[in-house]
DNA sequence: TGTATTAAATCAATTGTCTTGACTTATTTC
DNA sequence: GAAATAAGTCAAGACAATTGATTTAATACA
């Protein structure tokens, strides 16, 4: 920063910016609609057929799209549809959770190609980052064995961790992973791998996964409540993940909202409504590698402790959904998580009937007010991997701006 | 919509879109920074000096910017700063509230030029719209008397009403203005005036006003809690007002959040925390034209009923702020409203100390966690008027898209 | 006082992307 | 088999930003 008073302004754009936008528009249209002919794309995007033709040709040269057999649909020359080439790009997703790290590698369309899991390295992040770099390196080798041409097509690494970030001096809470959250992990991984690394919280990553492959596919206004070790919300607003001013948006687990019978000194929501609290109630060690199976069994058995927990959690989530609907007016709310499907389903069942809210309209859109999303311990890693793909290929305001 | 299966895609762009974006970028930079030379603009926007020169010349031709006296600042040729021409554009703001309608006309920089107030026409919207059209027409005449050249520079009319919109069959609540909310008022005004009309809820309009002239100026992530007849939140996310999927985002007055001592059957937040509830407690008729003065006096006198109300409202707002901070991670939260300044200040005072949240960080940005915004019965009308200005001149994703 | 230096702003030619309008190709309809 | 319809291409043109040289006007320094 030089001495002159700093001037704040957004970036302008140029022909390159417009072109980049149009490329992304094409890829986005193909991702949402499956396969489209050049004429379809021209109609859908408002561009001229010639422009579409040029861009498609360029994308085909780059190995991002591919033609398929032409289809006759009435009069006129048959259309040649194009679809995204799955192996057109790859990205790595890395999830750091309280007890495990998970790595996945996905392709352009979100297929998982490599998948590894290990315990969170003990000894803290300073040493642990070396272990993690090793894990990432091994995953890349596995990928290269399958797809030798993948080297130049790795668009980045998405890192997902429980939030919040950057405020740890105030909250030294055993529910948080202070050491890892304070460590410049993204920078160190970027140095170690040479890849672009983006950090987001686990709920945002889960929401990205929902948007790519799950219930939020093709929707632009969705709240994803993520039930993991903690509790968070991934916010899809105007078709993009919203991170807030300091990447901590959606930390609903830290809300101090009351339920009937609570006194004023209520604890954060995630102390009642999270896998961690359920483990607490059930006496399960959350670092147990069989965690998922143990919880699944406990939910299936359904003892009184489980029932009590589900009732309490469902009651709080019911209020949370009403609150989030009032605030966001979303197309739908999704309950997802690194939790067994049975648990998600039980919670949704117990959350009904939902409370009245502005989302409770007579002629509802096709989407229900509340629905189950991906209930998969891998969805956060998957969403983390989807982030670099989205960053590289999705239409967004920042992609239009001039690149120096 | 034709018979073929509908294809969803975003719009592409072209040179015109890029150019339109750059024009907006310039105006935005001048609005935020006051006055800048072409060289300053080039540096700030990343565009070349030549491009900036061309665009500034064009803007000057359109009467939107104007040069001022050149300033010597060290070596080299003195810079010629440009600033926005206040009379470069005009817009009308129309607020429909439970008991009054307010009309303002503002110019490009947000100065209020015309200002009228009258009772909400009785007899419902079908007849009332004619009265309103007449009011708007009169306001325009007043403007033309002052600025004869304003005719072609009227960019639109912003309409602000209490929300929510479109769900009234479910909530026939005396706190809402069902008849007006169900009437296609925006369309009718558009027909009657020939202007572009945009509808938003009053809290969003208030937030727009804060962004243009108030505490949110230059900030991109702000939650504005609007205390009016009802209670709402205007959401500034990524520098734009967020309206949700169906323009009802921010209806926090309808949240069913508990405070200590509430039972499960709690009423919506705005039944405790709004000017309407205060009037209720004080026995003031909210349709009294002296409302503002009456409330101001009552707050100054500070009887036990007022104190009780303030304590209750402050307690609920304190929780609401903690909740909104956890959800949005904003740069700041603003409490504003069509309420007396003294009331806003008293509430903020009583809301302290704020509850712990992710916004409670040690090294805080310049902005405080919570601050008072515009406390002015005119701010909603002003924000409504600012909306067409923003739509016409602010950089935004949709402005880049190709215009057919 | 005179020359070098620095910065703002402009001129003229160039580049890159989309657009336009005519044209080709392939299929159905009558 | 001719007309109609639709997909897709070709080649020239339009438009906005870029580039590099140039002009203008101030300060710095000898």
From TrEMBL, chains A, B:
Pfam families according to UniProt: MarR_2, ROK
Signal peptide from the UniProt entry: none
Molecular function via GO: DNA binding; DNA-binding transcription factor activity; kinase activity
Keywords: Kinase, Transferase
Highest taxon listed in the record's lineage: Bacteria
Annotated InterPro entries: ATPase_NBD, HTH_CRP, HTH_MarR-typ, ROK, WH-like_DNA-bd_sf, WH_DNA-bd_sf
Boundaries of every HTH crp-type domain copy: 28-73
Protein name, per record: Sugar kinase
Organism of derivation: Phyllobacterium myrsinacearum
Taxonomic lineage of the native organism: Bacteria, Pseudomonadati, Pseudomonadota, Alphaproteobacteria, Hyphomicrobiales
């Amino acid at each position: 920063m030089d001495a002159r008073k700093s001037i704040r302004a957004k970036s302008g754009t140029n022909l390159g910016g417009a072109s980049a936008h149009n490329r992304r528009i094409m890829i986005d249209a193909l991702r949402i609609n499956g396969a489209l002919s050049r004429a379809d794309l021209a109609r859908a995007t408002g561009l001229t057929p010639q422009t579409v033709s040029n861009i498609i040709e360029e994308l085909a040269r780059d190995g991002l799209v591919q033609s398929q057999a032409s289809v006759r649909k009435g009069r006129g020359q048959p259309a040649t549809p194009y679809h995204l080439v799955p192996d057109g790009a790859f990205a790595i997703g890395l999830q750091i959770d309280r007890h495990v790290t998970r790595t996945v590698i996905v392709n352009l369309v979100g297929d998982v190609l490599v998948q590894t899991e290990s315990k969170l390295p003990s000894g803290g992040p300073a040493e642990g980052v070396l272990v993690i770099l090793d894990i990432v390196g091994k995953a890349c080798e596995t990928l290269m064995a399958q797809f030798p041409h993948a080297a130049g097509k790795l668009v980045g690494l998405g890192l997902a961790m429980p939030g919040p970030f950057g405020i740890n001096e105030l909250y030294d809470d055993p529910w948080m992973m202070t050491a890892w959250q304070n460590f410049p992990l993204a920078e160190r991984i970027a140095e170690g791998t040479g890849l672009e690394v983006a950090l987001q919280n686990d709920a945002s990553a889960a929401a990205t996964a929902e948007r790519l492959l799950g219930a939020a596919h093709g929707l632009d206004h969705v709240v994803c409540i993520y039930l993991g070790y903690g509790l968070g919300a991934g916010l899809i607003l105007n078709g993009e993940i919203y991170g807030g001013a300091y990447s901590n948006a959606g930390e609903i687990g830290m809300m101090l909202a009351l339920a009937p019978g609570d006194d004023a000194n209520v604890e954060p929501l995630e102390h009642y409504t999270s896998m961690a609290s359920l483990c607490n109630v059930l006496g399960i060690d959350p670092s147990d590698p069989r965690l998922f199976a143990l919880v699944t069994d406990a939910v299936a058995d359904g003892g009184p402790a489980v029932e009590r927990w589900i009732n309490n959690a469902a009651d709080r989530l019911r209020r949370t959904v009403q609150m989030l609907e009032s605030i966001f007016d979303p197309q739908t709310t999704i309950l997802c998580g690194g939790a067994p499907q049975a648990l998600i389903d039980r919670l949704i069942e117990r959350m009904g009937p939902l409370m009245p809210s502005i989302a409770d309209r007579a002629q509802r859109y096709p989407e229900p007010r509340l629905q189950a999303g991906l209930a998969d311990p891998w969805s956060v890693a998957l969403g983390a991997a989807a982030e670099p793909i989205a960053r590289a290929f999705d239409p967004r305001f920042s992609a239009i701006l001039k690149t120096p």
